[in-house]
Every structure is written in C-alpha cells, then in structure tokens.
TrEMBL record:
It comes from Paenactinomyces guangxiensis. NCBIfam families: PRK00823.1-2. The keyword Cell wall biogenesis/degradation does not apply. One of its GO terms (biological process) is tetrahydrobiopterin biosynthetic process. It comes from the Bacteria. Keywords: Lyase. This is 4a-hydroxytetrahydrobiopterin dehydratase. Residues 91-112 are annotated as: Disordered. It holds the Pfam family Pterin_4a. Its EC number is 4.2.1.96.
Length: 112
C-alpha cells in the first residue's frame, strides 16, 4: 500500500495509528478480565483470517499491532482485521457504553 492509501484507511479508523510498518491501537477496559475476553475474541477472528496481530495485555488495556509479515508492511489485511476488531469492541461495550455482562460473555460476535 502507498502512504496515501494507508493514511486514507487510517482516517476511517479512529484511534488507530501508523507505527513504522504496522497499525496500532490501545483499547481500554473496565476490568482486566474484560481485556482478556477481548483478546480471546480477537485471537479467534485472527485465526479465521489467518492474520495474527501482536497483542499486548496490561491492566485494563490491550494494545493491538498489526502488520503483514510476508508482505513486509501494512496491507489491506491489516485494515480488514482492524475493522473487525472495532466491531468486536463495539459489541463488547454495547451501544450505551455498558460493559459486557456475564450473561453474554460466551457469545461470539464473529458468528453473527
């Protein structure tokens, strides 16, 4: 992808940034376990796409960094995954910003 294409794609993904040959974003959660559940859902989707980001877990934060190693940089695969991660985060917090509740923890939004 060209620098212009990357900039255009990033403009459609609030909070995502370019860091060298990757796109990154840090997500914040109410609890440590909410972050862990998010990582599990991201990992499941990454497996389906065969595109695996680096995931760094901290206390109530998860940083995602995505690059396409076999292409040596950022590709549309990274942006496809980023959009799906954004969808997952929205589904976890709900439209009203509420945290994921115990009654829906086990539901996978990727199957919807």
């Amino acid at each position: 992808m060209t620098d212009e294409q990357i900039t255009e794609q990033l403009s459609q993904l609030p909070g995502w940034q370019r860091e060298k040959d990757a796109i990154t974003k840090t997500f914040r959660f109410s609890t440590y376990m909410d972050g862990i559940r998010f990582v599990q859902q991201v990992a499941e989707q990454a497996e389906k796409l065969n595109h695996h980001p680096d995931l760094h877990i901290g206390y109530c934060v998860v940083t995602v960094s995505s690059t396409t190693h076999d292409s040596g940089g950022i590709t549309y695969k990274d942006f496809t995954l980023a959009r799906q991660i954004e969808t997952r985060k929205r589904l976890m917090t709900g439209t009203d910003g509420e945290s994921l509740t115990p009654s829906n923890w086990g539901q996978s939004p990727w199957s919807k």
